[in-house]
Amino acid sequence: MNKNKQLGFTLVEILVVLSIIAILIGLLYPALRGGIARAKKTTELNKIRQVGNAWSLYSASNRDRLMPGYISAGVQERWDVAWAYPDETLVPPSPFFEEDTPNVAGPWPWRILDRMDYSWEMLIDYKSQNWPIEQLVEHAEVVAQEPAFGYNGYYIGGFWETSGHFGDPTLKYSQVLLENNQVDNVVARVGSQITKPTETVVFCSSFNAQQGVYRDMPNDTLGSYLAVPRILANVTQWEPTAEGIKVFAQTSPPLGRYNAMPAIYFADGHVNDVSIYDLADQSMWIPRARDLPNTPAYDFSHSE
Q: Rounded to two decimals, what is the model's pTM?
C-alpha cells in the first residue's frame, strides 16, 4: 500500500468543476430571472385588482356614478366635498381651499383609499420606500400624484375644473365635436355608459413622460395618477414603435413594469397584462369611440 498517496482534487479537476458550475448558472439564470419577473407581475396584477375593486365599490355606493379622475380645488369648494386621512383630519385643500395649498385630494387615490383600508403603501411600493404609517400625511402628495397605476380619468369619471366668470364646475370633453359635425359627450359618468366593459381600460400602469423615445424603462420609474390614451382629444400623445414608446407631449402613457407589458384593470373587473401595441386602440379607452365616415374606432378622436 502506498502510504504517501495524497487525497483531494487536482487543480485541473477543480477548474473543470468550476467550469461546469458556471455553465449551469448561465443556463439557469435566465429562467430564474424570468420566474422572479413573473412573480412580480402577478403581484402587480393583484394590486391593480384591489384598486379596481375599490373603484367598483365607489360606484356601488354612489348610485352607479363613476369616480372622477380629477377634481380641481375650486370644484371641491363649490361642491363642498372633502376626504379624510385615517386620523380623520381633512386632505388638502380642505377645509380652507387656499390658492397656495397643494390639491392633494384632486387626483383619484384619496377618493377610494378608505375602501382599501388605507393601504396606500401598495400604490407606491414600486419606489422601494419604507415610510412608516405616521409619515402618511407627509407623503400624501406623492401617494396622490405618483401611484403605480394611472386612471383613465379623462374618459371614465371625468376631469373636473372650474370655468367662466362664476367659476362653474365644468366636465372636460362633455361637449365635443366629431368629424361628422355631431356634438357628443365622450365621458362615461355612470357604469351603464361603459358598453363594452370587458374591453374598456379603467386602470393602467403608467408614468410621467416628456417628449422623447422611451424603452427598457426601470421598474421604479415614477408613476402617474392618470393613464392617457394614444390620442387625447385630437392630439397624438404617444405611439408604440420598434424602438420603444415615442412620446410627443408631456403626458402619462402606459408603462410595462417587470415584463414590458402594462398591467390593466378592465371595467368588468378582470385584470391582465397587455401589449403596448394593443393599447394603441382608442376604443379600449373611450367608451363612446366608434367608426366615423373617415376614421375607424381604432383612431377615434374629437375636438378639444
A: 0.88
